[in-house]
Amino acid sequence: MKQRAKIESTEYSDLAGVVAWFIQLRWIAAIGVFAALLLSDFVYSYRLPYKALYSLTGILFLLNSSLALYFFQLKAKILSRGEMSFVFHFQIVSDYVILFLLIYLTGFLKNPLIYYFVFHVVLTAFIFPRKAVYAYVISLVVLFVLTAVAEWSGWIPTFGSIPGLPTVSESYPTSFLYMFALVSTILITGYLITSIMERVEERGQRTELELDHYRRLDQAKSNFILQVTHELRGPLAALKGYHEMILKGITGEISEKTQKSLQRANQRTQNLLNIIDEMLDYAYMKSEEDKQYEIEDLSLKEVLNHNFELYNILAKGKSIKLIISCPSSLVVKASRDLLDIILGNLITNAIKYSSPNTTVTVNAEEEKDEVHLSVRDEGMGIEPEELAKVFDEFHRTRRARKIEQDGTGLGLSIVQKAVNMLNGRVTVYSEVEKGTSFHIYLPGYQQTTENTEVAVPGQDTDE
Amino acid sequence: MAKVRVLIIDDDKDIIETTGALLEHAGFEVHHSESVEEGIEMIGVTSPDVILLDIMFPEKKTRGFEAAGEIKESYPNIPILAFTAINREYAFDFAKEDIKAEEFINKPVDTDRLINLINKHLK
Lengths: 463, 123
Prior knowledge:
The complex is a heterodimer of chains A (463) and B (123). With 463 residues, chain A is an alpha+beta fold.
């Protein structure tokens, strides 16, 4: 994989961007050349072969116009790698030829602007792999040497330089020094830029590999959490089954003391299940932070009935009455997954911190073009100074710990995150020893087609 | 009145034992199998009124999910209650709607609720 040709490894859109950039650079260069020619012709009146120079500038404009037309008109057409490579080589070669002619006609080695070739070498090294760069640079050097030899030998005409600048003596050693400076500059530039580009590319590949590595780790992490959660819930299901068997006397008579102990064991098992759910929710939301949730129009009553089914068992186990009330025409714009997470956490929380023979009420209604969903309990309540912190991750109030030792302190932070993802808001009201209510406002509406404004009480508790 | 016959297919022996005992205690006739293949064979022999099917098996995560389809092909009239320990839909990598089961139940399930669901699907 080392030494990948840049042309072959770069994304097509990036290559197209480079071509566009080259065309832009060439416009600036052409305008610069034209301005310089006008200046030397009319202001300084240098003696130069202007006809040829203007013609070259014209050719440069024409060339760039055709390239621009070719490229932008045919933008829709995707060029093949080969065609693209040809476009690049064509550009580089034509640029070298035009610059060479411009420089040759304005004094060649005696014209200090001959160092502008360095820019071309930099751009060549930017787009081509090492071999192509060396081929270009060496051809350039050969062209310079041959031209210089031809000039000295009188085989081709020598054109005048700019007056005022120190003229290069046509004697052999000085010219040799000029030639040496130019050739070494070109060669070193070619070598340095190619090496720098290779290093940059290598670093880019390393970064890409590292990113890939992290992506895979992240994926493995979330898969791991889901798998582990599944493995944890399975044994607990069996454990609860045995508790129930013993409590029902299937395995034989049990004393009241055993019954009490076992009920406690069963409660702790249930707590553990809730903790696993919370951690699963938390892990899921963390691993899917950038996921776009599918927001759909949901019948809130249907969702609430489903959740009632799931949590009424929990409520019955603690002799708590779970009431759900929602007009059947209420539609909420939400993701089913997130809505289940919100309801699951709020309802289990309410049941957890309520004493027996109290009621947990889930109520839903339309309010100012929003859906107002509330979960109210008659439990222990939250102290005013603690209220602000209940949505913090891993935060549990001191009193909550006292009543129920088990808990992650994640539930409400999950609720808040899920509500935010659904473009809603959540607030909490609480009075110590009277109860707590959570209020969630979500986008939604009341279906007007049927006139069922009356709040249909949800399934009541069975008994 | 004849007892309602329930076939439990689950790789977890303890789930078979507890769920089986609790259902027997409630007056059901319970048969069970720890593997999908044996379970499907047992359908012909025991002709259950309802099947409790675990949808995740160790050898292949979606084995039970596929089994539901196989059972429905041969026995379209036996209701299937799909069983899974995962209780969050997002944790599945397949859609719940694709599972050919009448009901979807999370483990652990309250026995009263399980009995209600079984009765709901018996005609």
